[in-house]
Amino acid sequence: MEDRLGRWLDIVRDLLAEPVTVLPHRELLDGLVTTFGANAGSWIHRTADDQIDHHLWELGAKPGDDAIAWMQTRLHQHPLICWFAATADPVAQTVCRVPKSLWDPCYAAWGDIMRPLEVEHQMAIPLTLHGHCHRAFVLVTCGTDFSDDDLTLARRLQALLIGLDRQAQALERWMPRAPSHEASLTNREVAVLGLVADGLTARAIARRLLISPRTVQKHLEHVYAKLRATDKVSAVLKAQSLGLLGGHAGRFGSVAAR
């Protein structure tokens, strides 16, 4: 298990070498399929208005469009969805570990579609879970179920993936929309300053972006020098005036209090 985890630490480190503003679903899913010896994997994003973004990779016998539409309208019947809804526990889980008492009786109707696809065993690794809204990687295999070690590793990798996802969202949010010739901040500097504007401390920013508090301070020193600012509030205000933070006001009261 430690070898597989070590390879993922290398993967995440390489991804963090440059600012990631969009989570690389395909690359991450390819890595997960390889790590767990799965037959295939998918990325599922179900929104609050029940829109479903579903990308399936590596499956040999793929379901037709009608079958996919049929499953999407009955997603609430899936054992993993039932499990997450009943427990509100967002950690990675497999279908076969969900107690039968939580299975929707109507799930039996899925058999005709699922059997030819050889996806008997499924493991979900959620990145976000809010009610019926979720974003998750799902791995599938047949024959032998995912082992206990597999599930333990998936739960450890889940923390890395969530951290990477949060950083991508932060960087995307604070990407400069109106670049200024007067000052030019790197994507990482924009992300750090944007989180400062939201009232986060250096330690909290470090946890959010998976960097050290010392690195956060170094980024802020560079920001101060580039913007000719002397503190956090003046740096945020100057960045705002230059359009470097996309017009977001932030929580200046929280910043000023620090």
Automatic annotation (TrEMBL):
Pfam families from the UniProt entry: GerE
InterPro entries linked to this entry: Sig_transdc_resp-reg_C-effctor (IPR016032), Tscrpt_reg_LuxR_C (IPR000792), WH-like_DNA-bd_sf (IPR036388)
Keyword Transcription regulation among record annotations: yes
Any GO BP annotation: regulation of DNA-templated transcription
Ranges in coiled-coil conformation: none
A molecular-function term among this protein's GO annotations: DNA binding
CDD domains, per database record: LuxR_C_like
Superkingdom, natural source: Bacteria
Name under which the protein is recorded: Regulatory protein, luxR family
